[in-house]
């Protein structure tokens, strides 16, 4: 893929969107100024600045300029609609909490209606540019694939589907190794590959055959570089690992990892820890300082027993820690072995309210300050469940590479509450691994925002 060109298109679209939003704001302001609706200019200036910030936050939360979205107009438009919903919610919250009474409601309504229209126009402009560029031969890289096998066929298909401005001219393979008709032509044997390159104007060669398997490839590599043709070797590791891998280098030694883990980087771990400390410190000092006495009184009035429910749970690297919660059940012998279920008779009345509103989880911010947990991560499970599911669910223990979280990607996607069968747990594990492989601070903020939204809107799995 022509990454540099694609990045230029993505950056251009991001700038176009921001300019479109500001253009809508200033045009609306100009029109309504003539009708005498614009009175307090400073509040309008604040509002104009905020909608730009709100759009940037929404874009980062949804990641709409990601390569997998911008390559398809339908996906791009769909994810843009999601970003606009976040943008709309942020603007409404801003107007509500900051009481911007001086701003005309007609002005706000017209602006918010015109913004998606302007963004849609940008999408069509982008589509036109993308289609125009894709048809230009002078921007196209012509590719020759060495070898005709299952890997080379898959490679050609992926290059054609996922790449921008790459044209597969065909394969080079020995006649004895070809036993079927191919979608792309078999142009010659490997020894004559350079003649094919000159004839078709090839600028890139992908070899699915290692030089150790065919010594003539060493000469082909040298000839390709002499003729300014980029030569790339595609190793076939499918026999050993049938999934996406990541390659790092220790000096000149390649090291293959089974997955990409952003939190293996020390800088990212420091960022996440600072985020955890700052948020949990404010929650502990500003919320728990008065919430604990209030909840303690309500729990004592309804049932005898401790205020906090302390349970051993599995943390990072499979180490045990003591997880804190407000006690939401009557004291019972099954508390450490049986999950809460819908209409569970063990749950108290105040406990049912706390569980539905997630108040029972608030003491875990103390666990976050201590370093046992993070605000966002895989939910910690009882030791009994970790022992059971690690034997039954594939990749279950991979989630233990991270600190457990108060909330997580699985939870905001409805995978919370009682575990109903192995398939349900497998889905949770898949979501936890996705979070681990795609972590970013903005992803954490998105999950926190979704958790707050689900709490307000209500979650049928919260009981």
Topology:
Blueprint: H1 3-33, H2 41-62, H3 67-70, H4 73-97, H5 105-134, E1 141-146, H6 150-162, E2 166-172, E3 186-188, H7 193-200, E4 204-207, H8 216-226, E5 230-233, E6 246-250, E7 253-257, H9 266-302, E8 308-314, E9 320-326, H10 349-357, H11 364-370, E10 374-376, H12 383-392, E11 405-407, H13 409-412, H14 422-437, H15 441-457
Parallel strand pairs: 1-2, 1-4, 2-3, 4-5, 10-11
Antiparallel strand pairs: 6-7, 8-9
Helix pairs in contact: 1-2, 1-5, 2-4, 4-5, 9-11
Structural summary, described in words:
- With 463 residues, this protein is of the alpha/beta class.
- It has 3 domains: 3-134, no CATH class; 139-236, NAD(P)-binding Rossmann-like Domain (Rossmann fold); 266-457, no CATH class.
- It contains 15 helices and 11 strands.
- Strands 3-2-1-4-5 form a 5-stranded parallel sheet, sandwiched between helices. It has a two-stranded antiparallel ribbon with strand order 6-7. Strands 8-9 form a two-stranded antiparallel ribbon.
- The chain starts with a helix and ends in a 6-residue tail after the last helix.
Key descriptive features of the protein:
five-stranded parallel beta sheet; two-stranded antiparallel sheet; 463 residues; Rossmann fold
């Amino acid at each position: 893929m022509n990454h540099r060109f694609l990045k230029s298109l993505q950056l251009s679209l991001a700038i176009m969107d921001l300019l479109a939003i500001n253009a809508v704001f200033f045009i609306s302001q100009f029109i309504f100024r003539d009708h005498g609706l614009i009175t307090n200019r400073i509040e309008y200036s604040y509002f104009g600045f905020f909608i730009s910030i709100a759009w940037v936050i929404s874009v980062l939360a949804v990641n709409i300029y990601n390569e997998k979205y911008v390559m398809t107009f339908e996906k791009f438009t769909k994810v843009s609609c999601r970003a606009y919903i976040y943008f709309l919610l942020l603007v409404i919250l801003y107007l509500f909490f900051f009481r911007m009474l001086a701003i005309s409601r007609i002005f706000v309504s017209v602006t918010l209606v015109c913004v998606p229209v302007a963004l849609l126009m940008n999408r069509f402009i982008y589509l036109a540019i993308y289609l125009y560029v894709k048809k230009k031969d002078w921007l196209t890289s012509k590719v020759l694939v060495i070898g005709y096998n299952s890997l080379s066929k898959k490679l050609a298909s992926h290059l054609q589907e996922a790449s921008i401005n790459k044209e597969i001219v065909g394969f080079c393979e020995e006649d004895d190794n070809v036993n079927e008709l191919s979608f792309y032509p078999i142009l010659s044997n490997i020894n004559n590959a350079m003649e094919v390159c000159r004839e078709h104007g090839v600028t890139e060669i992908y070899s699915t055959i290692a030089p150790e398997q065919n010594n003539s490839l060493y000469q082909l590599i040298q000839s390709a570089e002499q003729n300014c043709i980029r030569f790339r070797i595609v190793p076939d590791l499918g026999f050993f690992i049938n999934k996406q891998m990541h390659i790092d280098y220790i000096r000149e030694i390649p090291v293959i990892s089974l997955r990409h883990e952003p939190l293996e980087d020390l800088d990212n771990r420091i960022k996440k820890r600072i985020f955890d400390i700052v948020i949990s410190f404010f929650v502990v000092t500003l919320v728990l300082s008065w919430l604990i006495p209030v909840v303690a009184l309500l729990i004592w009035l309804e049932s005898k027993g401790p205020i906090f429910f302390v349970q051993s749970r599995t943390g990072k690297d499979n180490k045990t820690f003591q997880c804190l919660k407000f006690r939401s059940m009557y004291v019972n012998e099954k508390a450490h072995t049986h999950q809460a279920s819908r209409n569970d008779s063990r749950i108290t009345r105040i406990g049912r309210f706390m569980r539905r509103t997630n108040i029972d989880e608030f003491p875990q911010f103390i666990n976050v300050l201590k370093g046992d947990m993070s605000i966002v991560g895989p939910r910690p499970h009882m030791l009994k469940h970790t022992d059971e599911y690690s034997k039954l669910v594939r990749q279950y223990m991979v989630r233990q590479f991270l600190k457990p979280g108060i909330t997580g990607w699985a939870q905001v996607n409805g995978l919370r509450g009682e575990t109903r069968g192995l398939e349900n747990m497998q889905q949770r594990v898949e979501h936890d691994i996705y979070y681990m492989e795609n972590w970013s601070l903005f992803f954490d903020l998105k999950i926190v925002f979704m958790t707050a939204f689900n709490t307000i809107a209500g979650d049928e799995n919260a009981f």
